[in-house]
């Protein structure tokens, strides 16, 4: 951390005058090192606090840090209702994606949404030379046998995907991604819609309206 006396020379001048005053007027008073160090410690804490507030410290990697319900808690009931209209609608909104990811973590199946997000990012690669390293990471993380976050794929889909890793295309993971998408849509999504966190987002509506709107979600 930069020395504040170098950034603000006037502080250095003031400090020198204060020291001279104490030496001439009251030589018996000793400077207390621990008190002098307090402003520096406080300044460090303030700078650390500002640093942690920067956006880059809260942009979780899609592979492993998917987010939580903190932002979803501020979602209006009307917005939350839209998540029940379709699974695609839920995933298309960041707050919905974060809320669903948080829910999957409680079921210990967050690898599914992490794989889906990784595939979405993979398809956005702008050049061919980006595909190979990304494809290998996705394959080794989610698809190969005993992968740390292995997703549930049938033998045929896994085999087809494996064969294209050497020369990957933007469509290399399409079949696997579709399989995992359907799995989440048919299995996890209905449970999410009936989960306490999601239902708590709907509490701002009148009971009659809530019952009618929710019935169309299923």
From TrEMBL:
Give the UniProt keywords, A-Z: Signal transduction inhibitor
Which domain of life does this protein belong to? Answer: Eukaryota
Question: Is Disulfide bond among the key words of this record?
Answer: no
Domain (RGS): give its ranges. 86-202
**Gene3D superfamilies, sorted:** 1.10.196.10, Regulator of G-protein Signalling 4, domain 2
User: Keyword Kinase on this protein?
Assistant: no
User: One biological-process term from Gene Ontology?
Assistant: negative regulation of signal transduction
Record-linked InterPro entries? RGS, RGS_sf, RGS_subdom1/3, RGS_subdomain_2
Q: Which PANTHER family match?
A: REGULATOR OF G PROTEIN SIGNALING, REGULATOR OF G-PROTEIN SIGNALING 18
Recorded protein name is RGS18 protein
């Amino acid at each position: 951390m930069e020395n504040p006396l170098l950034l603000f020379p006037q502080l250095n001048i003031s400090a020198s005058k204060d020291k001279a005053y104490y030496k001439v007027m009251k030589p018996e008073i000793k400077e207390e090192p621990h008190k002098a160090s307090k402003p520096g410690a406080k300044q460090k804490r303030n700078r650390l606090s500002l640093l942690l507030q920067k956006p880059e410290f809260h942009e979780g990697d899609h592979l492993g840090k998917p987010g939580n319900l903190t932002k979803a808690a501020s979602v209006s009931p009307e917005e939350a209702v839209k998540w029940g209209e379709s699974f695609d609608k839920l995933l298309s909104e960041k707050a919905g994606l974060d809320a669903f990811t948080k829910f999957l973590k409680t079921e210990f199946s967050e690898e599914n949404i992490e794989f889906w997000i990784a595939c979405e990012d993979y398809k956005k690669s702008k050049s061919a030379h980006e595909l190979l390293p990304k494809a290998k990471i996705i394959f080794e993380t989610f698809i190969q046998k005993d992968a740390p976050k292995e997703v549930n794929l049938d033998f045929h889909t896994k085999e087809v995907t494996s064969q294209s890793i050497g020369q990957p295309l933007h469509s290399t993971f399409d079949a696997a991604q579709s399989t995992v998408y359907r799995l989440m849509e048919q299995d996890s999504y209905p449970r999410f819609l009936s989960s306490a966190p999601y239902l708590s987002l709907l509490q701002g509506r009148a009971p009659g309206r809530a019952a009618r709107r929710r019935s169309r979600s299923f």
